[in-house]
Amino acid sequence: MLKRVLAIITILIIGYWLAEGLANVPFGQDKMLVGQYYLNHVKEQTGAVNAVTAVVVNYRGFDTLGEVTVLFIASTGVAALLWRRKRERTAKTPGSVVLTTGSKLLFPFIVLFGMYIFIHGHLTPGGGFPGGATIATAFLLMYLAFIVYEIPHKGFETTEGLAGMSYVLVGLIGLAIGGYFLFDWIWQTWHWGTSNLGRLFSGGFIPVIYTIIGIKVGTELSGIIDNMLKEEVKE
Amino acid sequence: MISSYYFGAIALVLIGLYAVLVKKNLLKILIGLSIMETGVNLLLISIGYVSGRSAPILSEGIGPNQAVDPIPQALVLTAIVIGVATTAMALSVAIILYEKYGTLNIEEIRRLRG
């Protein structure tokens, strides 16, 4: 009881302190400095219509590379922590017929929608990470509906590694052509897609990189799901 | 007077902090951490808001002067993914702790170890 009261008093003090600091930050007013530059120049500099994905992939591409690295390390870490010699699905109750049939029916649609999200990252809201998470949701659905379902491990892990490597490779091609890492060579050097701005075949290397990221995130999250759903089998 | 978005974000952070400080179940602490992270993301997004403007997707009818700040949104995109990664790691640690000690109560785990 005393502990709770003390905790509540402490967090109220912290809350007052945070509110005091935020009281000088006006809500809903234009505070953009760099953001206005991005908004003004995003179309001619990157070819993307969606300013957020242009910032994520183009202007601040290093952040995304680090983010992909963090996710990769997390997936490897989960696999390393939950590694056992003999791990199998131990779920006993099969799902009802409606559940299994419905999941089978929904699976291709969810994967298709996930691919739509990451391919159209430069035009619509979304991008590689939401698209990859959607694809992982499709695999989670299959895992929950069927008691024996398992992703093909060899293929998934190879795809994940290849996707990560091709992201770095795209950046290195930019280093060779334009002089710095993650240079947008498709847009800046080839001028490919300058005439159809706002259509699918524009946006420089944003669709390429987001396809790579989408595949990588999808396989990674599916691998995390797979590792967490398996249990040790008692001999 | 503080804006309701800032107030909500601070409240979420504080609720998460309360769970981390007071709760004894490890899973509840992890839930508290996730709530805290949501609060931080909400705060970042609401700082970038400009009233009356729409999402920073410059399609027909939305020029560079009718969009909100894109930088906090890009930042939050990164923060969400990192939050998911850390939550996945923490959950697997919780699975291992339960397999090893048979409990998720942090005080009992401390006692069993010593």
From TrEMBL, chain A:
Domain of life: Archaea
Record's bilayer topology term: Multi-pass membrane protein
Domain Na+/H+ antiporter MnhB subunit-related protein, first and last residues per copy: 98-221
GO cellular component terms, A-Z: plasma membrane
Subcellular location: Cell membrane
Transmembrane region(s): 65-84, 105-123, 129-149, 161-183, 203-225
InterPro entries assigned to the protein according to its UniProt record, in alphabetical order: CPA3_antiporter_subunitB, MnhB, MrpA_C/MbhE
Domain MrpA C-terminal/MbhE: 31-86
Keyword S-adenosyl-L-methionine: no
Keyword Acetylation attached: no
The entry's keywords: Cell membrane, Membrane, Transmembrane, Transmembrane helix
A UniProt-annotated Pfam family: MbhE
NCBIfam families named in the record: PRK08386.1 (NF006248), PRK12567.1-1 (NF009217)
Protein name per UniProt: Multisubunit Na+/H+ antiporter, putative MnhB subunit
TrEMBL record, chain B:
Chief location of this protein within or outside the cell: membrane
Transport as UniProt keyword: no
Keyword Nucleotide-binding in annotation: no
Keywords attached to this entry: Cell membrane, Membrane, Transmembrane, Transmembrane helix
Pfam family name, one: Oxidored_q2
TM region(s), chain numbering: 6-22, 29-51, 71-98
GO cellular component: plasma membrane
Annotated membrane topology: Multi-pass membrane protein
Subcellular location(s) of the protein: Cell membrane
Name by which UniProt lists this protein: Multisubunit Na+/H+ antiporter, putative
Organism: Pyrococcus abyssi (strain GE5 / Orsay)
